[in-house]
Amino acid sequence: METQKTSFDDVIRRIIREEFQVVLSSIKQIFNAPSVDYDEVIDLKKFCKYVGCSKSHAYKLTSKRALKFSRRNGKIWFKRSEVDEWLMSNPIIQKKGGSNEY
Fold it and tell me: Does the pLDDT value for residue 101 go beyond 70?
């Protein structure tokens, strides 16, 4: 009987150890993931990469005052949260018939 109990205990320990490794792996992934600070201030180059546009298009957007930006030390700066708001400011709603409404 004692050998069965030890065997059962070993199985339980192994299961707990495996589950612990899964949880630990998940925690490591969370802490190693790049964090996004939505109040982060980004320059024009990062804005272009984030939005997927050229510098000339970004300059046109700022000259038209299409989105909020700041100028300091000869550079253009954007708040990432405001860029996100601007990106989502013109949603496309799917109609029942399949065409899009703008």
Answer: no
